[in-house]
Amino acid sequence: MAFGDAVVFGLAGATAAMFLFGDGYLGLGLPRLDAPKKGKSVLVWGASSAVGGNAVQLAAAAGYDVVATCSRKNFDYVRRLGAVQVFDYKDADVAGKAAAELDKEDCAGIFMAAGSKDGNVAACRVAAASKQRLKLASSNFISNLGDVPAGVDVRQPTAATFKPFPDAWFEMTPATFEGYLSEALSRGAFKVAPPLLVVNRKGLDGIQEAVDLIRVVSERGLDGIKEAVDRASEGGRGDGISAVKLVVERP
């Protein structure tokens, strides 16, 4: 694996693993190669994001049927990562449609991988619309729990769920760098997501270039991503994405 690929998924993969498999969050079974199907579903909200793309792959590798939301143009990308069903998060009836899909079997929970405050509310509505009592683990802090519909079990980083770094790290290593991922990456069973962009300049000058590209993306959204791809030395590998990782090489 190239060093550029290695730096792309580290934090995003660890974050996804914590919320999917951590005891204080969804507490799913751990991934492994050729895992048997569990006959249970998981919803990943914001599946085309950096954390979401890793969450889709990890949950699928653990044997869950992954239902996902993203923008329509990202459907194929998210399916390639392992989702069995994808819904447009902009659909006015996305909560009802996603809940109906989850209720076709036992649902192990919902992971809010990315999105705005409105996305938090929408993901909570999926849980509320389900016939099951669902856990919702959110990487985006929900500050106003009054927005959460009654009966939704929200799991998010709080004083009650926070663990010292060494404890959290050793809890997650079976699902990440010392466990499943090591063999899965060597076999090509786990995809590096999202695509990387190597900036033109190296070292400190490259950091400034990366910051400038981040500004372009934040100000111009998807058009900014397209411009970042055009300006970087390596194009984003994969069409229809809503996230990229910028990589600065050493001089």
Give the helix/strand layout:
Layout: H1 3-8, H2 10-21, E1 40-45, H3 50-61, E2 65-70, H4 75-81, E3 85-88, H5 94-102, E4 106-112, H6 117-129, E5 135-138, E6 153-155, H7 165-172, H8 180-187, E7 196-198, H9 203-231, E8 245-247
Keywords: Membrane, Oxidoreductase, Transmembrane, Transmembrane helix
Protein name: Alcohol dehydrogenase-like C-terminal domain-containing protein
GO molecular function, one term: oxidoreductase activity, acting on NAD(P)H
Task: Give a description of the structure.
This protein has nine helices and eight strands. With 251 residues, the chain is an alpha/beta fold. The protein folds into two domains: 3-187, Rossmann fold; 196-247, no CATH class. The strands form two sheets. The chain has a six-stranded parallel beta sheet with strand order 3-2-1-4-5-6, sandwiched between helices. Strands 7-8 form a two-stranded parallel ribbon. Strand 4, helix 6 (117-129) and strand 5 (135-138) form a beta-alpha-beta unit. Helix 2 crosses helix 3 and helix 5 packs across helix 6. The longest helix has 29 residues, at 203-231. The chain starts with a helix and ends with a strand. The relative contact order is 0.16.
Task: Please outline what is shown here.
One of its GO terms (molecular function) is oxidoreductase activity, acting on NAD(P)H. The protein has helices at about 5-10, 10-20, 50-60, 75-80, 95-100, 115-130, 165-170, 180-185, 205-230, and strands at about 40-45, 65-70, 85-90, 105-110, 135-140, 155, 195-200, 245.
